[in-house]
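task queued by scheduler; priority normal; single chain, no ligands, no partner chains; default sampling; output format set to structure tokens
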Amino acid sequence: MSSLLINIFCPDRTGLVAAITGRLFEIGINLGDTSFSMLGAGAEFTTVCEAPKGMAAIEIEEDLASLPLLKGARVSVRTFDLEANHGPAGRITHRVAVTGGDRPGLVARLSEVFGQFHANIVRMDAQQYPEQGLYVTRFAISIPERADACLATVANTAGELNLACHVEEVAG
């Protein structure tokens, strides 16, 4: 088996995840860490996966690009040279959601706080809900030490920006 990184960007369409993952399964690809999200009117699918020995990245790329739902998509398949297992820094200890109006620099300020406490952002997701005047940012974090101080600082930073902060501890 060889580790690959597959990234697909295209206009969002219903059935994309089913089409992509179904085809990858059919050709013998085993998915690892995988994400999908709408980005504006677009969609992005990314996975670190294992392909059978001898299967070339270009073959997979061409195969995926031939799917009707991926017409016009940017499909990239390349060797993944890093460790596929994320280790202790990828163990999520907390989920943090910050909600309120959009503020310039919001993600940067919160990310800086996590960095000050040596917390690793495992996943981050931000979405605009203009009809409700909301901007919601969610973080899945690995906080190795001083979690209470880190989370209090995050909550204070959110409060300074007139935003609500919700924290959930992840049982580990």
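post-processing summary
- Strands lie at 2-11, 30-39, 42-51, 74-79, 94-100, 120-129, 134-142, 164-169.
- The longest strand covers residues 2-11.
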